[in-house]
What we know:
By secondary structure, this protein is mainly α. Among the domains are: 1-62, Multidrug-efflux Transporter Regulator, Chain: A, Domain 2; 73-113, no CATH class. 47% of the residues lie in helices and 5% in strands. A 3-stranded antiparallel sheet has the order 1-3-2, with helices on one face. The longest helix is centred in the middle third of the chain and has 33 residues, at 75-107. The radius of gyration is 28 Å and the shape is elongated. The termini are far apart. The relative contact order is 0.08.
Amino acid sequence: xxxxxxxxxxxxxxxxxxxxxxxxxxxxxxxxxxxxxxxxxxxxxxxxxxxxxxxxxxxxxxxxxxxxxxxxxxxxxxxxxxxxxxxxxxxxxxxxxxxxxxxxxxxxxxxxxxxxxxxxxxxxxxxxxxxxxxxxxxxxxxxxxxxx
Length: 148
């Protein structure tokens, strides 16, 4: 079986050696073999496709934990997961675009409301308000509890 050094594998996949070491530590892309004496990581050509997929998923901003799950799925499930991921990215991007537009307008002095506010008249109503006082008894709550 033909083995590739981490340097050769890094060149073929366009991943850094540092990234490959991290992916090994995370169990995302372990080498085919680690030399017991030198500790050198050795890869096989069959691992190239998975490594390239990992690299492309990182390029679109997917987290390593999401990538680890995705590459463990069959192709249709991985594709569905990727579509859902990208839909979320686009929604986040649209929200940031709207906020950026609002901030630009605010900074240049353009008075625009970020959110549309509508008011309406309501008939008079009675309102009941119940107020209770609770006294704190010594020793009731533990010293470092959430209530301190």
